[in-house]
UniProtKB/TrEMBL annotation:
<dbReference type="GO" id="GO:0061630">
    <property type="term" value="F:ubiquitin protein ligase activity"/>
</dbReference>
<feature type="compositionally biased region" description="Basic and acidic residues">
    <location>
        <begin position="502"/>
        <end position="520"/>
    </location>
</feature>
<dbReference type="InterPro" id="IPR016024">
    <property type="entry name" value="ARM-type_fold"/>
</dbReference>
<feature type="compositionally biased region" description="Low complexity">
    <location>
        <begin position="82"/>
        <end position="91"/>
    </location>
</feature>
<feature type="domain" description="E3 ubiquitin-protein ligase TRIP12-like TPR repeats">
    <location>
        <begin position="157"/>
        <end position="284"/>
    </location>
</feature>
<dbReference type="InterPro" id="IPR045322">
    <property type="entry name" value="HECTD1/TRIP12-like"/>
</dbReference>
<feature type="compositionally biased region" description="Polar residues">
    <location>
        <begin position="12"/>
        <end position="22"/>
    </location>
</feature>
<dbReference type="InterPro" id="IPR011989">
    <property type="entry name" value="ARM-like"/>
</dbReference>
<feature type="region of interest" description="Disordered">
    <location>
        <begin position="1"/>
        <end position="132"/>
    </location>
</feature>
<protein>
    <recommendedName>
        <fullName>HECT-type E3 ubiquitin transferase</fullName>
        <ecNumber>2.3.2.26</ecNumber>
    </recommendedName>
</protein>
<feature type="compositionally biased region" description="Polar residues">
    <location>
        <begin position="39"/>
        <end position="55"/>
    </location>
</feature>
<dbReference type="GO" id="GO:0000209">
    <property type="term" value="P:protein polyubiquitination"/>
</dbReference>
<dbReference type="Pfam" id="PF25579">
    <property type="entry name" value="TPR_TRIP12_N"/>
</dbReference>
<dbReference type="InterPro" id="IPR057948">
    <property type="entry name" value="TPR_TRIP12_N"/>
</dbReference>
<keyword id="KW-0808">Transferase</keyword>
<feature type="region of interest" description="Disordered">
    <location>
        <begin position="471"/>
        <end position="520"/>
    </location>
</feature>
<dbReference type="GO" id="GO:0043161">
    <property type="term" value="P:proteasome-mediated ubiquitin-dependent protein catabolic process"/>
</dbReference>
Length: 652
């Protein structure tokens, strides 16, 4: 019996346990079904809320018209009962209350219009994806790569809601709320994309930020406003035109001309640098050149480089009639040509190179640029191409090859554009510098032509522009060059010299010299200012000829580039034309010029053949008694006769 009782007890416990587990399962199933019903109800609530939100949005858009109509009705009712109200209650208090309500309604309408403008810009931007904006698929992939990346790539709707909050904060009169809104705007602009910032209208935010730049009582507000404008230029390139339109440039210049806060001045300088790429004239008219260079020494080295780079940007494409906009800044730029930093020095050289290119055909403006020791500084800088030069502070200065080439082109433009500056360059012994630079050779090549072709071309261009231009051919020269009658006559009259005796050649040489002199004297021309300067100071031409003429023959022989050889021939021809006969004979005593001319006459390059003929004519004019024999011995007359004889086609 006891065993039977134990078994019954165990069976009862087992049944109770099974019933309790079944109840728990039923409870859990009921709970899960309740949770499913709750989630379904929540999703239904969300859908109803979104639908009601859309309806509220449509109601809000139609609210201004209803408000205006209700205001009109209220105004009519108020007009009808004004007499009773004024008699029973205080008339002035009721009028003030009515004006207050009217002002509030106007503010609400203005805010609603601003929001509608932002929504229109957002809808317009959503209509078509801007160029360069990341695609939705790319943004979705980036969001899947890591958690929390949505904070860095905000959606359009999130940015639109944030912009509404920021706009209301910027328009408030509370400095703390404005600072918070500016900080949030800077953060949004720094990490935003073209798509996320499509709702931002520059015509709405730029005037507010420019207005905040005038808050002189709060430096933090001005600093954050400047920073927001800089971020806006980077994120939305079209905002730069809006900043110029809403007079933001003069405010930036004021912050640089009167430095009270160094951080604010640096931020203003960054803004001007970004604007200088597309709006240089607007910055110059606002005094931007003087603003960025006035206190450049007070900033750190990185900021100094930024300031001089901005000044170089302002010098690009400047019209001649706007030269007065940079005249006050030329002394500051000239002082930077002795700076110890390479980047600052190169940007200062770039600024002058652009100004010289802008005023290449205006001698007065070129003289204005060179009025503050520009030429000595440039000559000192190009002299460092051969030996390391020292700045005024005693530190070694080296420049890039591109900068040296640019400086040579600048000096050539100055010499060509102004006779006074050309004379000043000759007086500064620039010929000695050119001689040293041409002699300096690459260690591996060992020749003067081992320099880059563009740099060698600019060297020879400068050497060419230091001398006056050759006279244009007159009627006699044109006839001689056109039909070859002069060279043919010279060849026929000298040809019998091979069979004659030595004493029979004197009448021939005298006749040739007299004929050439008569041809040159027939064309009278006025002496230009450059030639007059060389006649007044003949030692300048003597120095040029002594230092450069022999070297030009060597450079021509070793040069490969045709433009370099043409510049060499131009310099040689100018020296032969300008030097008097006695000085020319002394210069050419040890130089094989006849052997140099002979192969050029039969050259396939027509410009080289014409230059060689011109040189032979000059030598027969000035030194006929010396070069008749040399030309005959080197085959110059034979090459000239070959040119004057027409060639007959041969049958194959």
């Amino acid at each position: 019996q006891a065993g039977t009782l134990c078994m019954e007890t165990r069976a009862h416990a087992t049944s109770e346990q099974a019933s309790s587990s079944g109840c728990g399962a039923r409870t859990r199933s009921k709970r899960s079904s309740a949770e499913r019903d709750g989630s379904a109800s929540q999703s239904a609530k969300r859908s109803r809320l979104s639908t009601s939100g859309k309806r509220n949005t449509m109601a809000d858009r139609s609210a201004p018209s209803e408000t205006r109509s209700s205001n009109g009705g209220a105004a009519c009712g108020g007009a009808g009962g004004s007499s009773s109200a004024s008699s029973s209650e205080g008339g002035p208090s009721r009028e003030e209350h009515r004006n207050t309500r009217r002002q509030q309604q106007l503010d609400e309408v203005e805010q609603q219009e601003t929001m509608e403008r932002m929504e229109e810009s957002a809808r317009a931007a959503a209509g078509g994806q801007p160029w360069g904006a990341p695609s939705n698929a790319l943004q979705g992939l980036l969001r899947k790569l890591g958690a929390g990346l949505d904070d860095f790539l905000p959606s359009v709707a999130a940015s639109h809601s944030r912009l509404k909050t920021i706009h209301s904060g910027l328009k408030s009169q509370d400095d703390g709320l404005q600072l918070a809104s500016l900080s949030e705007l800077c953060e949004l602009l720094s990490i935003g994309t073209e798509e996320s910032l499509s709702a931002l209208s520059v015509d709405v935010y730029v005037p507010l930020l420019v207005q905040l730049l005038r808050r002189e009582h709060n430096a933090d507000i001005m600093l954050l406003a400047s920073r927001a404008l800089c971020h806006m230029i980077d994120a939305i390139p079209s905002s730069s035109a809006a900043i110029v339109h809403y007079d933001g440039v003069p405010l930036f210049c004021e912050r640089l001309l009167s430095i009270e806060y160094i951080d604010l001045a640096e931020q203003a300088l960054q803004a001007l640098e970004k604007l200088s790429h597309e709006h240089p004239i607007a910055l110059l008219r606002a005094g931007g050149m003087l603003a960025v260079l006035q206190y450049v020494d007070f900033f750190a080295m990185g900021v100094q480089r930024l300031a001089v780079s901005t000044a170089a940007n302002l010098c690009r494409g400047l019209p001649v009639e706007c030269a007065h906009l940079v005249s006050d800044s030329v002394p500051l730029l000239s002082g930077l040509l002795s700076h110890q930093d390479q980047k600052v020095l190169e940007n200062a050289c770039l600024a002058f190179a652009r100004l010289v290119d802008d005023f290449a055909n205006a001698p007065q403006q070129l003289d204005m640029l060179a009025a503050h020791s520009l030429l000595p500084s440039l000559v000192r800088l190009i002299s460092s191409m051969t030996s390391t030069s020292l700045s005024l502070s005693g530190t070694r200065v080296t420049l890039s090859d591109a900068t040296y080439t640019m400086l040579l082109r600048t000096l050539a433009t100055l010499a060509r554009g102004s006779p006074a500056l050309c004379k000043q360059l000759l007086e500064l012994d620039v010929c000695l510098v050119l001689h040293e630079v041409l002699l300096s050779s690459d260690e591996s090549m060992g020749s003067a032509s081992s320099r880059p072709h563009d740099q060698l071309f600019q060297l020879l261009s400068l050497a060419t522009e230091l001398l006056p231009p050759l006279p244009k051919p007159g009627p006699e020269r044109c006839a001689a060059s056109g039909n070859g009658s002069l060279v043919a006559d010279q060849g026929r009259s000298v040809a019998p010299k091979r069979r004659s005796k030595r004493n029979e050649t004197e009448p021939t040489s005298e006749r040739l010299s007299a004929k050439a002199e008569a041809g040159h004297e027939a064309v009278e021309r006025p002496v230009c200012e450059r030639e007059r300067a060389l006649l007044e100071q003949p030692h300048l031409l003597d120095t040029y000829a002594t230092k450069l003429f022999p070297l030009l023959l060597v450079v021509h022989s070793s040069a490969i580039n045709s433009s370099v050889r043409a510049k060499c021939l131009m310099c040689i021809t100018k020296v032969l034309h300008l030097l008097p006969g006695s000085r020319l004979a002394e210069l050419l005593r040890e130089l094989p010029l006849a052997a140099f001319i002979a192969p050029l006459i039969s050259s396939q390059e027509h410009s080289a053949a014409l230059s060689a003929l011109h040189m032979a004519e000059i030598l027969l004019t000035k030194l006929a008694h010396v070069y008749e024999d040399k030309f005959l011995r080197e085959g110059v007359f034979h090459a000239v006769a070959a040119l004057s004889t027409p060639t007959e086609p041969t049958d194959a």
